[in-house]
Amino acid sequence: MVSFPAPMPTVMQFENLKGTSYVEGTDDVKLYDDAFGQIVAAALPVSDSLARINRLKMSEGRTP
After folding, report:
1. What SS3 state is found at 42?
2. d(CA 57, CA 64)
3. What span, in angstroms and rounded, lies between the C-alpha atoms of 4 and 25?
4. pTM more than 0.70
5. Half-sphere exposure for 40 (CA within 13 Å, toward CB)
6. Which of 15-23's residues contact partners 24+ apart within 8 Å by CB, and which partners?
7. CA distances from 64 to 44, 46, 59 (A)
8. 3-state DSSP call for residue 46?
9. Cα dihedral sign for 56, 62, 63, 64?
10. Which of 4, 16, 31, 45 has the most CB atoms around it within 10 Å of its CB?
11. Dihedral, CA atoms, 45, 47, 48, 50, nearest 10 degrees?
């Protein structure tokens, strides 16, 4: 999300394999901002994520 001073709109930027897309407009930006907030809220803390990755590596016989 890129925020600009008024009167410029806030813009959401999406990067993917085909390039970059942009969304602007209050309702559209809010939709994506809310979705991102839900993803962040559901994510494990960094330390827990690293521990889980290391456990998976060890279960495959790889070193962490």
Report:
1. helix
2. 6
3. 13
4. no
5. 6
6. none
7. 18, 15, 10
8. helix
9. negative
10. 31
11. 120
